[in-house]
Write a structure and sequence with these properties.
- This protein has 115 residues and is mostly beta strands.
- Strands 2, 4, 5, 6, 9, 10 and 11 form a 7-stranded mixed sheet that branches. Strands 1-3-8-7 form a 4-stranded antiparallel sheet, with no helix packed on it.
- The chain is globular and about 40 Å long.
- The protein starts with a strand and ends with a strand.
């Protein structure tokens, strides 16, 4: 499975961004996908996850009510809609996919929020 993120950029506090992650390869094996982020000097942390059918989502407390994860299984694409962005949301955002036996990562996309 290969994962390619896009949609990052430089925005101001309060703005919105939508990240995309396109999966290719053996995507039928994926059961959970998610977004993680890593800020400079910090560990990578969970942002949100979504199950294969899209029926179950999970969010970090820091993004609840502001971010929405979604999944288009027809096009093997996952999204992260980020609203009301804050400077503390600045990080490299990584797409993640999990099968029963493996974990896959994208290359990351930079999100920078200025105050």
């Amino acid at each position: 499975v290969q994962l390619v993120e896009s949609g990052g950029g430089l925005v101001q506090a309060g703005d919105s961004l939508r990240l995309s992650c396109v999966a290719s390869g053996s995507t039928i094996s994926i059961n959970v996908m998610g977004w993680y982020r890593q800020a400079p000097g910090k560990q990578r942390e969970l942002v949100a996850t979504i199950t294969s059918g899209g029926g179950r989502t999970n969010y970090a407390d820091s993004v609840k009510g502001r971010f929405t994860i979604s999944r288009d299984n027809v096009n093997d694409t996952m999204y992260l809609q980020m609203n009301s962005l804050k400077p503390e949301d600045t990080a490299v955002y990584y797409c993640n996919a999990r099968s029963l036996t493996r974990i896959y990562w994208g290359q990351g996309t930079q999100v920078t929020v200025s105050s």
